[in-house]
Amino acid sequence: MTETPHFSRWKPARIRSLPGRGASRLAPEYHARDTQQVAPPEDRYYRRDLALIHHRGFGFHAQACAPGILRLLEPVRARDAVVLELGCGSGLLTKELTAAGHRVIATDASPAMLDLARSYAPAADVRTLVLPGDPLPAADTVVSVGHVLSHLPDEHAIDRALTAIARALRPGGLFAIDICDLAYGQARHDAPNASQVHDDWTIITQCSLPAPHLFVRQITTFVRDDDGSWRRDDERHHNALIDTARVPALLAAEGIQVPMAAAFGTEQLPTGLRVLIGQRAG
In this predicted model, what pLDDT tens digit does every residue of 24-36 receive, in sequence order? Predict the structure, then answer.
């Protein structure tokens, strides 16, 4: 059992820890708001508070991947092609793409993330898109960072999404995404709880690996309102893990040659996160 984060030193928050792994409760006297007051229950992932915290405190992955992706896309920019971004989140990579002169269709399943993306990356065409069922617009390039496909329910859903992505690519189109391998969970099966505490928000994450193909994050967030009170929300994220070694053959059947890569460029990715970079024949 790991040590519970010590909130008593966080003076603006007036939150203290209670017994139990991950500090999963607030002391009653601090009047944490019910989760349903924070966001509609149908928004399963990245509701308002977690979306905002992710934007403010977890942009490092998109920022690390952006230089390599921009280099990969230099030939695409020269012909004013369409870049389809899957799982754009709050628009961190999107803004880098549009600033470099790309024409971007940025998509996500989270309404809260899309609201942030429209504000943060206004030059992009921001749209709702839920994989694997929603139709994908035709594109000259498909990019995705942050293991977006790994948020799908299972391996079958991931296969459907990969097939849909391949079929959306125009001749000569480029494919560049990251995805979680089985090794992602193996490297984190005994990971301790993690937390970040800031003046106006905090996040506590408890990880588990209930099965080799399933990595789970139990995420608790606290965000300070304008009146000084604090609200709480809880999200449970399931990441489907797959044997990524079989993905190149799946995509080859759709006419896309995709070798496995260590990174998009020179960035160092987390253990178990794989990169697929390939192209449809012209």
Answer: 233 323 333 344 3
